[in-house]
Amino acid sequence: MEWNEYKTKIKKALDIFNFDKEILKILKNSIKKNQKIFVAGNGGSAATANHYACDLSKGANKNWEKEKDRFKVISLSSPIEYITAISNDLDYSEIFKQQLINLASPKDICVLISASGNSPNIIKAARCAKDLEMIVIGITGFEGGKLKELADYSAHIPVKEYEICEDIHSIFGHFLTSYLRE
Q1: Please, which pLDDT band fits residue 182 given cuts at 50, 70 and 90?
Q2: Mean pLDDT over residues 139-150, rounded?
Q3: Whether this model's pTM surpasses 0.90
Q4: Is 150:177 a contact under the CB 8 Å cutoff?
Q5: Given strand 18-19, what is the order of strands in its sheet?
Q6: Is the model more confident about 182 or about 81?
């Protein structure tokens, strides 16, 4: 594939990307409501989840010097010791669910990123989050899969190419950071 062809695909994908606008309000109000935001994904989406955690925790804050009024974001994709222990002792499909059981509270926010929307560990996390009375935001690609059905709010790119989906999900994270900082 040539560079110009890839750029054209990204531009077209941005034009068809759609998200529930309520996501902006939910994330913005998380500071006032003292809600934690958990993010998770596999593979490239794990990297995106970690990037969201960094940017929303630091980059979205207007005044980094302030000790209050910060977004509290935790990536469930980053604690490798915890992930491997859960995978070894239980099952890989449990890696996000078990962390949510230990760390989350009702009304916290769970942002799950999956191009296919069908990763077993993401689906278990979504169901667990619902059981814990958390708000579930699904960021998906392809057809959206089970995650899009389970999520309370959705950000979806109907494209069946992982690279394009992951690029759009990353761009969405940067948009969220910029929006929340303003």
Answers
A1: confident
A2: 98
A3: yes
A4: no
A5: 18-19, 153-156, 135-140, 109-114, 36-41, 72-75
A6: 81
Instruction: Name the average pLDDT for the chain.
Output: 95
138: left (phi over 0), alpha (psi -120 to 50) or beta: beta
Q: What is the arithmetic mean of pLDDT over 78-98?
A: 97
DSSP string, the chain: --HHHHHHHHHHHHHH-EE-THHHHHHHHTTTTT-EEEEEESTHHHHHHHHHHHIIIIIT-S-TT-SSS--EEEETTS-HHHHHHHHHHT-GGGHHHHHHHHH--TT-EEEEEESSS--HHHHHHHHHHHHTT-EEEEEE-TT-HHHHHH-SEEEE-----HHHHHHHHHHHHHHHHHHHH-
Residue corresponding to tokens 């630091």: 58
Cα dihedral: 39, 103, 56, 83 (round 10): -50
What's the average model confidence in pLDDT over 111-124?
98
End-to-end CA separation in angstroms for the chain: 37
Report how far Cα 114 is from the mean position of its chain's Cα atoms.
8
- State both tokens at 72: 């509290």
Question: Is the predicted pLDDT of residue 70 greater than 90, yes or no?
Answer: no
